[in-house]
Amino acid sequence: MALGNLTWVTEFILVGVSDDPELQIPLFLVFLVLYVLTMAGNLGIITLTSVDPQLQTPMYFFLRHLAIINLCNSTVIAPKMLVNFLVTKKIISYYGCAAQLGGFLVFIVAEIFMLAAMAYDRYVAICNPLLYAVVVSPKLCCLLVSLTYLQSLITALTVSSCVFSVSYCSSNTINHFYCDNVPLLALSCSDTSIPETAVFTFSGTNLFFSMTIVIISYFNIVITILRIHSTEGRQKAFSTCASHMIAVVVFYGTLLFMYLQPRTNHSLDTDKMASVFYTLVIPMLNPLIYSLRNKTVKDALKRFLENPCRSLKLM
After folding, report:
1. CATH assignment of 19-313, among 3.65.10.10, 3.55.10.10, 1.20.1070.10, 3.30.420.10
2. What is the pTM of this model?
3. How far is it, in rounded angstroms, from Cα 195 to Cα 117?
4. What gap in Å lies between CA 43 and CA 33, rounded to an integer?
5. What's the CA gap between 252 and 246, in Å, rounded?
6. With the C-alpha atoms ordered 6, 12, 18, 24, is the resulting torsion angle positive or negative?
7. Strand 11-14 versus strand 91-93 pairing type
8. DSSP label at 92?
9. How far is the C-alpha of 241 from the C-alpha of 254, rounded, in Å?
10. Dihedral sign for Cα atoms in the order 30, 35, 38, 40
11. Which residues pair with 91 in a beta bridge?
């Protein structure tokens, strides 16, 4: 095609979860409920871990940041997604699309490393309980959280810059409900080898290092728990990391399902379903996982509901 015949893209059209007109309102209601529950649950965790004196420990410090990440990740995606269920033209501007991709990458990478930091916290708490207060100090907690956000920002800036450095012309329909790198690169009319390499490198590196930390931590945790002679002791040790183990399995299971699919079975529709899970469902589930299985959090919620004004004054 001659350069003079190319129309450069200034906006994109998002296909959404489904392009069936009859499903738009039912899907809007379903995802609205998911988003409201996500907002309520994560804001609840943020509030409780900020005001309750018994939740001022490294474990709940990391949990508070995980809730912030989940809340922000859903907010980057859900509002635009909900609006698009109700309008005919599902348009997002070129720069809006770039901002959404960057925001998504910041918070998905931050979640990967925050779960790894939480795994390390549980490893020290169970395997070296006498040194826990010394090893997992407030300074180390702040350092781990800072490094998590720094790596997520580096990843987001590099990958989104590479994705939007290629040319988009003529075709502007994204087969997704938000701006993701794979469907975006599929629309490019120029060479995509550099952004594809950047996506593969950062995705692989981030997953490898975070999963290595998680696997080593839980390998040692399991060995330590098995060495405990009393059943009551094993149950108590297991209960301190059970919620985090569930969250890790659900989150990493979804990511591995996406990235380890054979190329012959891989499709953008499958990506969309997996994306719904880790951008909207998991952020909604995490507060439930950490509250329903955690007596300390449930007790903190009870104290907060009994006297919310007093609790808020402690912030």
Report:
1. 1.20.1070.10
2. 0.89
3. 28
4. 15
5. 10
6. negative
7. antiparallel
8. E
9. 20
10. negative
11. 13
Amino acid identity at 70: N
- In terms of DSSP bridges, do strands 173-174 and 11-14 run parallel, antiparallel, or are they unpaired? parallel
pLDDT in the model for residue 315: 54
CA 206/CA 113 separation, integer angstroms: 8
Alpha helical stretches, state H, 8-137:
24-51, 58-86, 94-127, 132-135
pLDDT tens column, 17-53: 888 888 899 999 999 999 999 999 999 999 988 888 8
11-14, strands of its sheet edge to edge: 91-93, 11-14, 173-174
Q: How many CB atoms lie within 10 A of CB 20?
A: 10
3-state secondary structure of 8: strand
At residue 47, the 3 state secondary structure works out as helix
Distance, in Å, from the CA atom of 22 to the CA atom of 45, rounded to the nearest integer, reads 36
Percent of the chain with pLDDT over 70: 90
Extract long-range pairs of 16-22: CB within 8 Å, 24+ residues apart: 16/81, 16/84, 16/85, 16/90, 16/177, 17/81, 17/177, 17/272, 17/276
Q: How far apart are CA 223 and CA 75, in angstroms?
A: 39
Pairing of strands 91-93, 173-174: unpaired
Taking Cα atoms as reference points, which of 310, 289, 293 lies closest to residue 52?
310
Backbone φ and ψ for 17, nearest 5 degrees, come out as -65, -40
What percentage of residues in the chain have a pLDDT greater than 90? 45
Domain residue spans of the chain? 19-313
Q: Computed over its alpha carbons, how large is the radius of gyration of the chain?
A: 22
- The token pair that represents 5 in the structure block: 């015949």
Task: Give the Cα separation of 87 and 278 in Å (integer).
Answer: 25
- Whether 291 and 46 have beta carbons less than 8 Å apart is answered as no
Is pLDDT of 2 > 50?
no
What gap in Å lies between CA 269 and CA 18, rounded to an integer? Answer: 9
Tokens representing residue 102 in the block: 């960057």
